[in-house]
Design goal:
heterodimer; A: about 575 residues; mainly alpha; Cytochrome C Oxidase, Chain A; B: mainly alpha; 2 domains; about 0% strand; flat
Chain lengths: ~575, ~150
């Protein structure tokens, strides 16, 4: 494609397709547009839930209550957690999966395009319904875990809590339908030659994630239905006074809740595994090991739920400590493979790669505090303290959000036809890295000193003020970093100032780089032959008539992968 | 066995084993039932698809084969994966790929109907009853959309 053609295309609609009016987006069944809708909806909720956390940090900077009351504070942390998990991270996962699964397997669309549109509108509706509690006298205020009896009719009357339940049921239903769609797409719409063990790791991880969603979201949806019955129809399922069980809620919630954490991190493992090999100039080290490590994390996640319940005293702490620590093994395999992929590679430190390296370091901190929390003896001491808050923010911000930013810089050129600004990207990375560590690292220390989570106030005599000031300062830096990202996206994509993206700006390996940026309706005009897990690399080498080992330092691919026939 | 089936089989095998272990260690009902649910759900996928794969191997509709294969064919027809006997030999893609709709208003309306029904559970039937009506219209429009296009 010539430069003139590229410029002509860039002047056209920013998004894929011939027309991109509002009606087209309202009625679209194209997986790429739905992916964009998901992605920008998720980023919108990220700003909203992030703003709530900034209000909380402003209040917590100094002892005593300054401008919030406890009831409002409870609503803020509840909707911050709910928004980030259900309406930011999940939609971003679904957005990336929607856009790139069909592209990566060489399909024209997902298996059920209209169902796909329904999942998006349900997710959006769920988010709006859950957050609408703020408009009707108070949103839910019992934490994103909704523990009973706090979330029951006695302690949480008011429609805000009911709206939270309905919103989450929508999110859960949307997730289940989307997961079915992804599994059907991956199983039945792969291009000729695209065997299971030639699929990109992102697609593999989304397959495992989809199975987790299909098996655990129904449990959440059922539990929410029971809670709704308890709240509005006089049920007593979770009411011990009437023969119900409050612990049952915790079992049901965490049987969903812990796999949910993997639902939010496995796709981003996939993202990082797409980016690191490309920016290291090498194939991924141990492709099959990666895939099987993902599957192992997936199955293990079904048997770890009650490590959130050690302190209830009614679960088998031994069982859950062992199964939880076992998860460190496949995760360690992944870390080894990422490092081995970079080892002696030709590293290019562009923004996507910077965020991936940041991901490795930050997720490692979050990952290492995991086995500590999986030890009941330590968990009893730090349960419900800021240590736990630090742990899951290093996992979900240092892990998922860093990888989501990496995905934005890596894939937004493919989605929009515009490169993001590299200097702003690097600035965004450093601001995020510094702000994140200032925000979340001191929380470890606060937790060890015994500061409980979910409080709006702490005594001046506690000695926690300095660390809280540092944390609030860090969160302000994070807010600035988000503004840098937002300006980068607005200027580069929506104002069209970004350089025009070629088909393959990074020298990618998987099939999404074999089509135009943005791809046409139905994605491909021609597909390269698929004979390995790097078809675009193979085609590039063939086109330049250079032997693969001369093109770049390459390790041999798994010979058994070539013998795998498509038996699907 | 195809990798697609082994994928489900691994989950079924792990959750079956760990479910039994969990029950012996804790005698706790909720978790044991949920692990059994996962094992049965994924195991069922393996069993049904294994029978379908067996049933659709070889020419369809010849009426022969063992009991397992005939049972598999019956299950496959029941869930809609096998061609009926009369269609034996027909090229599955002879009529061309089913057209992918370029756009549809029904998913948006379905979500709107679901929102009305859901909000009606909170605020009252004055909201959910119109939602049910809209849902009925939406289901009709959804299932007849492709026919109308053809």
């Amino acid at each position: 494609m010539t430069t003139a053609e590229l410029q002509q295309r860039a002047r056209g609609p920013v998004l894929a397709g011939e027309r991109a009016g509002i009606v087209d987006f309202l009625t679209t069944t194209d997986h790429k547009r739905i992916g964009l809708l998901y992605l920008f909806t998720g980023l919108g909720f990220f700003l909203l839930a992030g703003a709530l956390s900034l209000v909380m940090r402003a209040e917590l900077t100094f002892p005593d209550l300054q401008f919030l009351d406890e009831a409002t504070y409870n609503q803020l942390f509840t909707m911050h957690g709910t928004g980030m998990i259900f309406f930011f991270a999940s939609p971003v996962v679904f957005g990336l999966a929607n856009y790139f699964i069909p592209l990566q397997i060489g399909a024209p669309d997902v298996a059920f395009p209209r169902l796909n549109a329904l999942t998006y509108w349900l997710a959006l509706g769920g988010g709006l319904i859950a957050f609408s509690g703020f408009l009707v006298g108070g949103a839910a205020a019992f934490g994103w875990t909704g523990y009973v009896p706090l979330s029951g009719p006695i302690f949480s009357p008011g429609s805000g809590s009911n709206l939270w339940i309905i919103g989450l049921v929508f999110a859960g239903t949307s997730g289940i339908l989307g997961a079915v769609n992804f599994v059907a797409t991956i199983f039945s719409m792969r291009a000729p030659g695209m065997t299971m063990f030639r699929m990109p790791v992102f697609t593999w991880n989304m397959l495992v994630t989809s199975l987790l969603i299909m098996l655990t979201f129904p449990v959440l949806t059922g539990a929410l239905a029971l809670l709704f019955i308890d709240r509005t129809l006089g049920g007593h399922v979770f009411d011990p006074a009437a023969g119900g069980s409050a612990i049952l809620w915790q079992h049901l919630f965490w049987f969903f809740g812990h796999p949910e954490v993997y639902i939010l991190i496995l796709p981003f493992f996939g993202v990082v595994t797409e980016i690191i090999p490309v920016f290291s100039g090498k194939p991924v080290f141990g492709y099959r090991g990666f895939v099987f490590a993902t599957m192992l994390i997936g199955v293990l996640s079904y048997s770890v739920w009650a490590h959130h319940m050690f302190t209830t005293g009614v679960v088998s702490n031994l069982f859950f400590a062992i199964t939880s620590m076992m998860i460190a093994i496949p995760t360690g395999v992944k870390f080894f493979n990422w490092i081995a992929t970079m080892w002696r590679g030709r590293l290019r430190f562009q923004t996507p790669m910077l965020f991936c390296i940041g991901f490795l370091l930050m997720f490692l901190v979050g990952g290492l505090t995991g086995p500590f929390l999986a030890s009941p003896a330590i968990d009893y001491a730090v349960h419900d303290t800021y240590y736990v808050v630090a742990h899951f923010h290093y996992v979900l911000f240092g892990g998922s959000v860093f990888a989501a930013f990496a995905a934005l810089y890596y894939w937004l050129p493919k989605m929009t036809g515009h490169m993001l600004d590299e200097r702003l990207g690097v600035a965004h990375f450093w601001l995020t890295l510094v702000g994140m560590n200032l925000t979340f690292f001191p929380m470890h220390l606060l937790g060890l000193e015994g500061m409980p989570r979910r409080i709006a106030d702490y005594p001046a005599s506690s000695g926690w003020t300095l660390l809280n000031v540092i944390i609030s300062g860090g969160s302000a830096i994070l807010a600035v970093s988000i503004l840098v990202l937002a300006w980068n996206v607005v200027a580069s994509v929506f104002l069209g100032r970004g350089a025009v993206a070629p088909d393959d700006p990074w020298g990618g390996y998987s099939l999404e780089w074999a089509t135009s940026s943005p791809p046409p309706h139905h994605n491909f005009t021609a597909l390269p032959p698929i004979r390995s897990e790097r078809p675009v690399f193979d085609a590039r080498v063939a086109a330049s008539a250079v032997r693969p080992e001369a093109a770049e330092p390459s390790v041999p691919t798994d010979p058994s992968a070539d013998q795998e026939t498509d038996r699907g | 066995m195809a990798e697609e089936l082994r994928f489900f089989l691994r989950t079924a095998a792990y959750t079956a084993v760990i479910g039994i272990l969990y029950w012996i260690l804790s005698y706790e009902w909720a978790g044991s039932v949920m692990l059994a649910f996962v094992a049965v759900a994924t195991g069922l996928v393996v069993v049904v698809f294994f029978l379908v794969v067996r049933a659709t191997r070889g020419p369809l509709g010849d009426g022969g084969g063992g009991k397992v294969r005939r049972a598999g064919l019956a299950v496959a027809r029941l869930v809609g994966f096998a061609e009926p006997r009369g269609a034996a030999g027909a090229e599955p893609l002879a009529a061309g790929l089913e057209p992918i709709p370029v756009g549809s208003v029904w998913p948006l309306l379905a979500a709107a109907a679901a929102s009305m029904i859901g909000l009606g559970l909170v605020y009252g039937p004055w909201l959910s009853l119109p939602g049910v009506a809209l849902a009925a219209i939406t289901v009709w429009g959804w299932i007849t959309q492709l026919d109308a296009r053809n």
